[in-house]
Amino acid sequence: MADKLIFAQTFEGLLRALGPRLDARMADELRKAGIDPAAELKPAYPLSVFQQMIRLVGEAVAPDQPADAQTFAAGRAFMDGYAQTMVGRAMLGMMRVIGPRRSLERLSRQFRTGNNFSETTLRELGDGEYELWVNQVSLPGFYRGIITAGLERAGAKDVTVDLATHADTAATFRIRWK
Question: Kind and range of the H or E element at 162?
Fold first, then answer.
């Protein structure tokens, strides 16, 4: 397979998620990781740069939390930042219209707006309960955060997203809502 790439709009969402936390120190950390927040974003970046940026955003938005809680917070913050992008506004607006179930069914397509490699498989377990397999997950907390925030934006209440399995690069999540 070709290199795993994350597209610019995903990085734009993460940069916007930082908000006022994007100070001189954070800008230096981002440049060290391979992102220059003062320059125009490249069309795509390697997966490793994305992973480092998630960690930096997590440390900024949840500094006193353990690593998994930081990446979960980064995922939730990303959805807020992504909602401020052109692509994110359109996607999240569609999710509100079609609801949580259909949003989950379209997750592979939605993830593919942000990268060139994501694949998902969804299995319904019951009313408002699903199992989601994702082929490439290095930071499960981030995925838990984006899925939780996305489903809430799609109208789901009392959302829980638990990591069921994580082996090699793939992960399975158990998702429930009311």
Answer: strand 160-167
Packed helices 8-18 and 86-105: angle between N→C axes, nearest 10 degrees = 100
User: Can you tell me the distance from the alpha carbon of 176 to that of 162, in angstroms, rounded to the nearest whole number?
Assistant: 9
Domain boundaries, the chain: 5-82, 100-176
Report angle CA 48, 165, 18 to the nearest 5 degrees.
40
Helix (H, G, I), strand (E, B) or coil at 163: strand
Q: Which helix (H) or strand (E) holds 161?
A: strand 160-167
Structure tokens at 174: 């158990």
Contact by Cβ (8 Å): 103, 154: yes
pTM of the model: 0.95
Q: What pLDDT digit, counting tens, does each position of 20-54 carry?
A: 999 999 999 999 999 999 999 999 999 999 999 99
Q: Kindly calculate the radius of gyration of the chain based on its CA atoms and give it in whole angstroms.
A: 15
